[in-house]
# Entry
Amino acid sequence: MKIAAVAASTAIVAGVFVMNGFQATAPAKIDSEEALIAGFKKSTVASVADAVDQITGQRGFMSHDMRPRVPGQIVGRAVTATLRQVPPEKATAALSAKHSVAMIDNAKPGEVGVIVVENGLDVAGLGGLMGTTAKVRGMAGILIDGGLRDIAELRALDLPSYSRSVVPSSSVGRWASVSNNTTVQCAGVTVKPGDIIVAGEDGVVRVPKERAAEVLKRSQEIDDRESKMVPLIKQYKALSKVVEVFNRI
# Structure
């Protein structure tokens, strides 16, 4: 069948998408937390980013420098903590990580720690000891808007860990923990406790909890459409023709 003969139409019949002449199974009904998290684990980070754009009209992807320092997929609900620069006498060992430690100590399995070290790219917000605690608590991973240290220990733990920098410094004597489980600004994106974090080699995306099911369905549709485009690109050895059919790039 020639590309020109393919109708540019979309319909849903008996749970099956008929999209530009190609059929694909409709996304499964999302009726539980397990199904929601499992669905995002199967989606690509890029498709989730596009879906957040389309569903919310707002950016969900974090800054380009939020990178995996210990590689691994992260999908889970966010729990948060914030550190802020204070005079050295107020940045004691007891205060420097009080709220971030409490956040990790109380984390549920599968949650994602989001620690913001305000204006602290040269300050580590997490190291081996906190990472060990996160691992034994069953956390899905850690994001640090700031520095990360003890990379070898975190790698040995196999704890997916993302940060904006890698530094050997301690927060003690420099920054103090000021809050946990509050709304934070992490790498250019607002993150609320309970939002879903989706992270992989392409970067990190925040999915607002109140729109999560809609975003997942749209992400699945995007993934499905792109999977149908690849064979045609290989067949016709041209992208422009396929873009005309699917109205997508």
Observations:
- Confidence is low (pLDDT under 50) at residues 1-27.
- The longest strand covers residues 74-85.
- Residues 212-236 form the longest helix (25 residues).
- The helical segments are 33-42, 45-56, 93-96, 98-105, 128-136, 151-157, 212-236, 240-246.
